[in-house]
Amino acid sequence: MSNFVFITLLAAFPALSTDMYLPALPIIQEQMGIPLATANLSLVLFFVFFSFFLLVYGPLSDRVGRRPVLLGGITLYIVGCILCALAQSIWLLVAARIVQAAGAASASALAMALAKDVYTGVERQKVLAYIGVIIPLCPMLAPLFGSVVLKYTSWNWIFICQAVLATLAMYGTLTFKEPEFEKIRGSVWKVISRYAAVLSNMQFSLSCFTFSFMGIGFYAFLAGSADIYIVSFGLTEQQYALLFGGNAFGFMLGSLLCSRLCVDMTSMEILRSSLTGILLSSIALCFFCNTITGFAVTMFMMTFSMGVSRPVSNHMILETVDTDVGTASSLLTFTYFILGALAMQFISFDWASKPLVIGEMGIASAMIPLVALFFLRKKHQKA
User: Fold this and answer.
1) What is the mean pLDDT of residues 202-229?
2) Chief location of this protein (predicted)?
């Protein structure tokens, strides 16, 4: 298995862990007689614990190496998949999803760290963009695959399929030749203290925190899309999967465009243009969210713009650090997903119009990093 394929598979873990069972959420809600906010806890708490475990795996991998951390994490993920498949109540499912999250975090935390270890400069930026092209295939195909499983079996089998896919990552970990890098020495407290060292880098902290807001509109869509399309608009699970996949296709096209633009444009120019795209599409969403077509088209444009912005923003953030790469990578992914989890819980409340709220969150997701870019540019000019 090539380095590129292996890193891409690791980066796909969050999508594989969530999007495949999104079509099942209304069924779980109905079978267990629970409200949407309770059913969505299996999503929200997954991302909360996933985010916190990212903080463990990054510095741990900087101390003991990438392979041992991946072997333990992927094994835990497979156990979590089996427990999810056996769950008979929402609380058992939520508990099993937490186990799943604890394992999945190892793959996601180390995907960007390995990209930093293996690739450099413009090559890394291109690789991150190519990964951004391929990763959206998971949310394009995963809900459709999940809806097919639902058509012939129960939702429990979706998690068995996730366990099977995770064995491929286990094989990749066993065969991957780990690159040499300078490991952290000393006590566990010294390892944890590296977070303070990374956070003291103000350029990293500012860009990491503000750029992570770009995802809140999308994560609100992720948690609310099944309810919007299936319950509110009355579509089938298969129709929903196709429309959801359209958003993933938009993300993929955006990332592909980013891989082309990075040859002729600076990272700052690409990011500023893509954030403007998120802002304009979110404003349009607020006006055209009451129909299936209006909601689907404006969400497509939002996710397309996010696809352009995400690879280049990751590259810009990683460029601010030279050491403690695993720790920095964990902080970056942690911030992105914890804000996403908050957005997912926020959209689960009983809003009069969930699509309108998603549009308003999309506006905020563009404005916050745009303001940060203004200050970063001013600081750069003074330097």
Assistant:
1) 89
2) membrane
Handedness of CA 50, 56, 59, 64 (dihedral sign): negative
Using alpha carbons only, what angle is made at residue 67 by residues 43 and 16, rounded to the nearest 5 degrees? 25
Q: How many CB atoms lie under 10 A from the CB of residue 269? A: 13
The answer to whether residues 298 and 281 touch, using CB atoms and an 8 Å cutoff, is yes
CA atoms of 183 and 61, how far apart (whole Å): 8
CA atoms within 13 A on the CB side of 14: 27
The phi and psi torsions of 22 (rounded to 5 degrees) equal -60, -45
pTM reported for the whole predicted model: 0.74
**What's the number of CA atoms in the CB half-sphere (13 Å) around residue 193?**
7
Sign of the four-CA dihedral 96, 85, 243, 257: positive
Topology (CATH level 3) of domain 3-382? Growth Hormone; Chain: A; (1.20.1250)
| End-to-end Cα separation, the chain, in angstroms | 44
Taking the C-alpha atoms of residue 151 and residue 154, their distance in angstroms, rounded to an integer, is 8
DSSP symbols for 128-159: HHHHHHHTTHHHHHHHHHHHHHHHHS-THHHH
Is the pLDDT confidence value at 203 over 70? Answer: yes
- Nearest-angstrom CA–CA distance, 109 and 10: 9
What is the spatial distance between Cα 138 and Cα 140, in angstroms, rounded to a whole number? 5
Instruction: Supply 7's token pair.
Output: 């890193």
- Please report, for the chain, the start and end positions of each structural domain, with discontinuous segments joined by +: 3-382
**Residue at token pair 């689960």:** 348
Q: What is the pLDDT of residues 95-117, one digit of tens each?
A: 999 999 999 988 887 877 777 77
Q: Please tell me the distance from the alpha carbon of residue 62 to that of residue 183, in angstroms, as a whole number.
A: 5
- For CA atoms 119, 125, 127, 131, give the dihedral sign: positive
Q: Which positions ≥6 away from 339 have C-beta within 8 Å?
A: 212, 213, 215, 216, 219
- The H or E element containing residue 20 is none
- Kindly give the interhelix angle for 41-64 and 325-347, rounded to the nearest 10 degrees: 180
